[in-house]
Design goal:
Layout: H1 2-11, H2 16-29, H3 32-45, E1 49-52, E2 84-90, H4 121-129, H5 138-145, H6 158-165, H7 169-180, H8 192-206, H9 213-219, H10 221-225, H11 229-236, H12 240-253, E3 282-286, E4 295-301, E5 306-309, H13 311-319, H14 322-359, H15 361-366, H16 376-383, H17 387-394, E6 398-400, E7 406-408, H18 417-428, H19 436-445, H20 452-461, H21 467-475
This protein binds a DNA duplex (14 and 14 nucleotides) through helix 12, helix 17 and helix 20.
DNA sequence: CTATGGCACGGATT
DNA sequence: AATCCGTGCCATAG
């Protein structure tokens, strides 16, 4: 969609350069998943573009970049542990996880993000529910789990399961409920809405969920997904500010697409829920997944192989004449432009990640508390690009950290994350329920100066109850 | 009276 | 120019 917009400009008003800029900007703004779509569309209607099949590294099975050797295996053996390998990695397999039973990732790619448990999704889930299932429920569970789509949603109707196994819908629902409470929380839900609700349900058992979250999802999901906060506030009879908190909470703690995120992390005992998002645009992990090894940063550029101008098309172009040639020439230019723009996008993303990795390395390795304060403008300055370039490059993108959490890239610029992390630890270790003023003082001892009012805000962001309520909750039985 | 949440303002950031 | 964020002031609940 976005692309056709800039194409319009290309044809009419174009000095090529302005089209180039327009398209570069819009590409930069896209997430990897969106870019993949765009490329597919373009491939299907532009004969000048072609894909040459992927090449894989014989050592590690990783897809190779356009030219040159494998960015990981070709590194000298004597790398210092604090070095970082950073490269643009063309791949699309990552986005087409097939959840049906028996399928698995290529076995020659040991570092697949999802295979950390060496299980595929259905097996992984089944291993969790199995103990809770009655004998006659098992075939139902099996059928459900083998019919998940790539996002982890149930891809068949309940009645089909009923018909197949000759059972009542209630039976199926029961099993489904059990499954949805398994680790990618909300897996096998029938909609985003149902998945989110399941997660809220689960979280509210162990942690405090801000009010209106549940109602916003169950009653006004339309408005919520369209980010129509003012409207939403009106309908629920509350303020916009509250709704903002709600939306913040949802994006921080819930995951609309169960199967896309990291499994294995969601259930943590003390309500310390990791942020969960969908497919990452950048992956960061240790070489061979061994902590302490150099970091590897893969910037995912989606493609089903390497994109290039078709030599056959070029040849054919020369033999054409007149109008037809004009027509084809346009296609060729367009294709050429797209390729250039993608390269530029990759280049920008690489530079950006280089900076981020350098500055936020301790955050990446050691977690929230070590996040350095940083603004997009600073990065822009270092790279000598306009700040809006960085904004676009960061917007809507996600990064997978070595601990398998997937976070929005904007987290690298979050001014309050580190403080909130300290606040959390203060409250975890408190010996009596500290009120906001005391928390404020405690933070000050650690060299953090924030207003009492701000403490209250952070607290509610973290879904932590106020002191007088915590007193009851935490210390009641003691 | 104290602790907390709502609202609104201003400065920083995008 | 629009948005986000921290903060101060005030109302209110306990």
């Amino acid at each position: 969609m976005k692309l056709s917009h800039s194409q319009g400009q290309l044809q009419s008003q174009s000095p090529l350069i302005s089209a180039h800029i327009a398209q570069t900007m819009s590409l930069l703004y896209m997430t990897s998943a969106e870019l993949l779509q765009t490329i597919d569309v373009e491939l299907s209607k532009n004969p000048a573009l072609e894909v040459i099949p992927e090449r894989r590294c014989p050592m590690c099975g990783r897809r190779l970049p356009e030219n040159g050797p494998c960015p990981v295996c070709s590194q000298p053996k004597t790398m210092e542990p604090d070095e970082t390998i950073i490269f643009v990695s063309p791949r699309d397999d990552f986005y087409t996880y097939n959840g049906s039973a028996g399928s698995s990732y290529d076995t020659d790619r040991p570092e697949e993000p999802f295979s950390s448990e060496n299980l595929d999704l259905p097996t992984y889930v089944l291993s969790q529910v199995a103990p809770e299932l009655e004998k006659e429920e098992r075939p139902l569970a099996a059928m459900i789990l083998t019919n998940l789509d790539e996002d982890g949603f149930l891809a068949i109707e309940i009645r089909e399961i009923c018909r197949f196994h000759h059972v009542t819908p209630e039976k199926v629902e029961t099993v489904l409920k059990k499954i949805m409470r398994c680790d990618p929380l909300g897996v096998a839900a029938r909609s985003v809405q149902e998945a989110l609700l399941t997660q809220v349900e689960f979280l509210s058992e162990s942690t405090q969920v801000p009010e209106f979250v549940r109602r916003a999802i169950s009653e006004e999901f339309d408005l919520l997904s369209k980010h129509q906060y003012s409207e939403l506030a009106k309908k629920l009879g509350t303020s916009i500010q509250k709704i903002k908190l709600v939306s913040h909470y949802i994006s921080e703690n819930l995951n609309p697409f169960p199967a896309r995120a990291n499994w294995g992390n969601f259930r943590q005992p003390n309500g310390n829920t990791p942020d969960v998002f969908h497919q990452p645009d950048v992956m960061i992990y240790y070489l061979n997944n061994k902590p302490g090894n150099p970091l590897i940063i893969e910037i995912i550029t989606p493609s089903r192989g390497t994109l290039r101008l078709s030599p056959l098309f070029k040849k054919a172009l020369k033999e054409q004449t007149g109008e037809q040639q004009e027509e084809w020439k346009k296609d060729l230019d367009k294709a050429n432009l797209l390729i250039k723009c993608i390269q530029q996008r990759n280049n920008t993303m690489r530079q950006l990640m280089e900076q981020l990795a350098a500055i936020q390395k301790s955050y990446i390795i050691q977690g929230d508390v070590h996040l350095q304060s940083l603004t997009r403008a600073e990065i822009a300055d270092k790279l000598g690009v306009h700040e809006s370039t960085i904004s676009r490059a960061v917007a809507n993108k996600t990064v997978q950290l070595p601990n398998k959490k997937i976070i929005p890239m904007s987290t690298f610029f979050d001014r309050s994350l580190a403080v909130r992390a300290v606040l959390r630890s203060i409250i975890e270790n408190e010996s009596h329920a500290l009120n906001d003023t005391e928390i404020c003082a405690s933070l000050e001892e650690r060299g953090i100066n924030v207003a009492r009012r701000t403490v209250a805000k952070y607290r509610s962001m973290e879904g932590i109850l106020p002191a007088h309520l915590r007193k009851l909750e935490k210390f009641a039985t003691a």
